[in-house]
Amino acid sequence: MAIFDCLKKLISTLVIMGIVLPTSSGLAQTCGDDPRLSDLPGLLNNGTPPTPPLTMMPETFIRLHPKVRAVWGRSITICPGIALNSKGQPIIRPIKVPFPDLWEKIEACVGRDDWDEISYLHNNFVALPLPREAIFSLLTIPGYSEKNMHQLAQKLKLATFAYRGQLQFFVADAFYVFGGRVDKPGRLIIFPSQEEVDQARTTADALGQNESFVAFGGLYLPFLAQALKSLKNSGIEAVSTDYRLKGAQGF
Predict the structure, then answer these.
(1) First to last CA, the chain
(2) Domain residues of the chain, as ranges?
């Protein structure tokens, strides 16, 4: 869960900085989680589908275990008013969800070897856009076993690369496969240090420039060529001021 936790922390930071993330929370004004969900154990102990049907946000629905989804079936309505068919699939799909919620569910599925549920996610959900800074944070390689890396890459048809004889991919590649893109077009400028990022951001804000900045941090140099491809897939034009990156393809 380390990758997911880091992403959640970064997104919280971006919100504090004033960067508004697009989420489905806007629907909460007219549609939200049914209050009965606060007693989830009681609902499950009833052994029968709830009546009337339960309404829930997409972020809540995606967290349901497939066995719960199978029992409740058509007694579930996803905001804003999307019912399930007899196979447990939304009748209107794909459903848009924040990528942190989607990746959290993927990690849970990998942990219990539930590859059928990962296929369900792939067939029924897409990721909402993220800011450029957040997508850069997705240039992280999951710490799964070699077997699970192969299985997840195969299930999601991820772009992969080899490093020291091992198959690798970035979390950003999963974001792209689930339809993820940046929220606004523009450049992402990579600096060697956070201090330089802060200085550049202050200047850009003063000039009204539509650019985003991140620090180079711990991204491994051998992965840069693939990282650039992942950024480009998500709609990011990446440039750098760091001499170490000048030889990488794309800079």
Answers:
(1) 32
(2) 2-23+98-245, 24-95
